[in-house]
Hints:
The structure holds 3 protein chains of 3 kinds. Chain A is of the alpha/beta class. Chain A has helices at 35-49, 69-78, 93-104, 124-132, 186-192, 231-241; strands spanning 2-7, 9-11, 19-20, 23-24, 31-33, 57-63, 82-87, 109-113, 135-146, 149-156, 159-165, 169-173, 197-201, 209-215, 224-226. Chain A contains 6 helices and 15 strands. Chain C is an alpha+beta fold. Chain C is built from 10 helices and 10 strands. Chains A and B meet through helix 3, helix 4, strand 9, strand 10 and strand 11 of A and helix 3, helix 4, strand 5, strand 7 and strand 8 of B.
Amino acid sequence: MKILVCLGNVPDTTTKIKISDNKLDATGIQWIINPWDELALTRAMELKEDANNLVDGVSVVSVGLASAEPTIRKALAIGADEAFRIDCEPTDAFFTATQLSLVAKDFDIVLTGIESSDYNGISVGGMLAEIIGSASVSAVSSLNIDADKIIVSREIDGGKETVSTQLPVVLTVQKGIAKDPRIPAMRGIMMARQKPLKVIAATSTANLTEILKFEMPQAKGKCKMVDAENVAELVNLLRNEAKVI
Amino acid sequence: MSVLIYAQNWDGKFKKSVYELLSYGKKIAENNGTELIALSLGNVEKDELESLANYGADKIYFSNNSAFESFDNEIFTAALKQTAEKVAAKEIILLHNNEGKALGSHLSVALKAGFVSAAVALPESYSPITIKKKVFTGKAFAHVKVNSDIAILTLSPNSFEIKEIASAATTEEMNFTLPTAKTKVESREVSKGKLLLTDADLVVSGGRGLKSGENWGMLEDLAGVLGAALACSRPVSDEGWRSHTEHVGQTGKIIAPNLYIAVGISGAIQHVGGISSSKCIVAINKDPDAPIFEVADYGIVGDAFKIVPELTAALK
Amino acid sequence: MNFEFTEEQLMIRDAARDYVQREAIKDVLERDEKSEFPAKHVKALGELGFLGMMADPKYGGGGMDTVSYVLAMEEISKVDASLGVIMSVNNSLVVWGLQKYGNDFQKDKYLPALCDGRQIGAFLLSEPEAGSDASHQHTTAEDKGDYYLINGTKNWITNANSASVYLVVAQTHPEKKHKGINAFIVDKNSPGISLGPHENKMGMRSSDTHSVMFTDVKVPKENRIGDDGFGFTFAMRVLEGGRIGIASQALGIAGGAMERAIAYSKERKSFGTEISNHQAIAFKLADMAVKIENARNLCLKAAWLKDQHKPFGIFSAMAKQYAADIAMEVTTEAVQIHGGYGYVKEYHVERLMREAKLTQIYEGTSEVQKIIISRDLLHD
């Protein structure tokens, strides 16, 4: 069984977003693996290391220019066996999913994070499944392989469902799939040098959407402070000024 | 041509978020002079189904087919696609929840239609459609143009006012050609009667400032008096004080209640990303410099262990 | 000239940062308060490969360069300088010393466990009457034919209780003065070794420091490092490299204090504005940044020279003296910027200030570094 983890390269979650020239101002931004994708990679590694190992290999793929390679090599250092980079700037989700399908069609389990913390939205996993015609489950918070059966749980409102799925499958994963992202060990960093990182030419495809411009949220008005000795005043404000209770 | 909304049901009932979708869809339909179509999949009683007419649906399509008992991306996508084609939908509007997000992305490929998630307002123009959506988990907005004839949207919760408009809707049962499911729901655990964080109008949330999971009693009391749902910040769920299903923030749930009360939460940028669309934010923190006060509407500086019980008492 | 780090060096820096910011930060205040050894963090850092990061991969080392080591030490010490010194002693003194001067038998026997954190090492040079002065050793190692018999007391020994492997410097031939000194690998559990009480230190309280007493401790001949009389040279060479570790630790302490001071000055308000808008504060921050950048450049230069197998001893002395002294200055100013909050433990900067002080003292005081530097200048 072969697992593919799709990696998005996104601004660090602590980044203060600045827009200039109608694009994200990349100055000073630290790029990281999309946190959900990183958890997906962690789970893939756990499955590979499991004693009843049914996983032959874990590969990673990212759509991006050469500047995305540090993130990709970090995934190799964490333990992925091989990597693919599809050589183009990801534009909209459909474009990105189409590029990913070049690689994804050869894998049994494809993992994508439920949401990328940038503007590509939440849609890449679902689109990818639809393009390659595989089974798919979204909002997956646990993944286990039992013999040849893939068992996942997905969050539903107020609870969860256990779902079995055929292969191949695209799983859109969320928090809970693994506890903490892994930190690459020195040995892994050393071994990453020797692992293959294949660069694949992009396929031409349309963008179904495009961003015309960005806008920053309006600054909040000043916070109205209430004295700690006068909690009743807060209740009054919530009832009569904000009218939320 | 028409506007199609998918009216998801929960054990045969609709939620107000579905009516929000209808109100939103109705505005678009009125603008374009087209019909508003609602599609319901799964077992919903007639009365409940007809409630969709109270919010402006012109036609209600439904199917009680048992294939819709549990959610499957391919099966639900097939039903939506066939409906969209039948009614020549130009705008397809979905809830911004797990099902809606999944359906939007599948349909986008199936219909070659641009998909915009987390829209926060009506389209700014209609041909082509341009619309404002959240990006960078609410830290910014983008104005997005859809390059296809059909546009698929998910609507960010609490972004549009629900408006009752009685209409004489017709209901019609649909017969779909459905694929064989590749996934199967083996079991389901649902805690009944619990107010869901993502549905809640009022949310009481606790952070690391509460020191330990054992101190949640006072928040439960406050939430009880308000009828609010409970939430927490990331360190709290990481420490295992509360379940990760209550984690609100950039890597947890993104919520937009009317009132969000943050107790002992410093307001790290990742947390704020998950709550910034709340209508009113109250911060209770002993540190007057905590960044949460920068996004809060009302703040109290002081000891949460004293203030929260007083607040609960004052609300009683 | 090239000031760019490689992708790998940055990955190592980020790995160190991620670990301490995610894990060590959680209990750093508590361990400081209780003077508690960070056993679980040492284990985790060992598993990640930080405890033998420059050692040869064939012994389970990371095979990384000294530049990476500087970056990792800096990040770790920003959060927890105690963890930094434990790592520095193990990497630059014990593992490096063994790998460079040990024989194959010694390397095969000791290095793998020291590299992956199953064991840690301690370096026993300082004595009650002479800090880091290797030439006057009162501890004796008497040659008994088949073995050496060690007697004496070592002071201020980092990792004394937690270490399994001791590198001990002792005098075998007093008449030959420093040319009679030897260095030995000694199992900490050897009969005759006893520890003094845990030192109740001002800072770096989470590292365990004791004096170690040797009473007729038998050490097999095969445990001597190098030829008879090599001990002084051994100690000097090892300390040259060790200074890079401590300099980077001091750099990290200063950097941690500056990061906290910047964050605080952007939040804290006085006279109606964030205090960072007051020039008095902003200039303090600018001064900190310049000092830290200078210190970093000195550390990196010494590391780079070492990686190029060029003489680096003077530069590591400069790096250590300068980084330690500015760490003291920067942390003191960071406390000042925090005002009253800086004086309470919760805000970390008073701890960093206490930690900075030790970097001016151990592994050669700032004054000793100046001796090394000036001797080189004045040497004909």
